[in-house]
Amino acid sequence: MSPPPVGLPEALERAASALSDDAADIRPANGDPIQLIELLEPDAATRVLEWLLVEELDAGTELALSWAEIPDRASNVLLAVTETGLPKPAKKAIRRALHRMRSAGVEIPQESTSTVVARLPSVEEKLDEALISPLDPTGTRMAYLVEAHPSGGARLFEVMLSEDRGVLEFEVYNASRGKVRRFLRDFTRRERFPGISAPPASVRALVDRTASRESPERPTPRGFDEWRSHFADPGGALTPGGLVRDALVAADDVDAAEQRIIEQIRERELGPWPPQPEVLQSIAGRLEELTKGSIIVSGAQKREQAEEILEQSVIEAFVGPFSEFTALRFEENAYILWKNDNEADARACLAVADLFQSGPERARKVARAMLDVLLGPLVERVAEGEPTGESEPEDESLIVKP
Q1: In what order do the strands lie in the sheet with 196-197?
Q2: Of 212, 112, 120, which is closest to residue 161 (Cα–Cα)?
């Protein structure tokens, strides 16, 4: 008497044990056909299905028919099954699945019903993806590049970038394609700073540009020098910000664009992207001096004096290269907005980027809003006469990496 057939979850666990290279992508699906097709690369999915059709016919049939219900994701897998070597019942199962897709309106090539079904071309060499995060309040962002590993699987580069401070962190991971794909998918779905797709050449150009900001005080992250040539000038590719510049025109109404950006800064939706810590500490020191005078003044007078210090400090905070870095950040932020179908705000960011490219005097209103957000709590303490203590601006990324 033959043993009873096992269910799909148990059969997939057996497949994971037999197909060790695919096990890391089979098991997380927990027997769910939909989850499984999302986790497996097409070649791996075909391999798993063929194994089931030979070793666990009932489970293989169930999986094939389930995938036939989602032809947009699985038709290439089913069409790639080779009937040669399959037992007759397995051949019937795969033909039933193809017939189900054809009945649903999917065009099935005539040769797919023949004894041998030609495999689709492998996509192993085509793996080349990139994602970037939005800029966090410190002006830091993450970039991820994925490429095929020469010995199989995928290679993932993780880079933390800051326009004014350079490459802050760098890691290289080798993993299965399914694991990397799950990671990237989760990165695009998270609530804070979700990843946005960008052309790999553009992200390499962004890393290359940012790497030029090396500082003697901040050594290059371990391992980056070894891979630096990998991010060298990729033949004049535009950064993501350059792509949006090429696609959109800056907002015509600059005053309205300024006001829109200022609102977003004050609502903590954008920026404030602080200048170097020593610059903020210098401004904070002058604000703190207001609490140490021997002449007693009202809170309103202290607030007025603090506001005057901030107004006088705008140029100091954004003068020179930092104005250019801020312009680049607004430009790069425009790419994120553009890809999120927010063209109006993207154009506003480009307009403000133009102001900062012209220097902090032209961008004074926006720059002042950024200082207000950065030093506003200190101004309040000064106005209320409270001890201020040491003011140490945050220097670490607020991005929580997946």
Answers
A1: 166-175, 154-162, 140-148, 128-132, 196-197
A2: 212
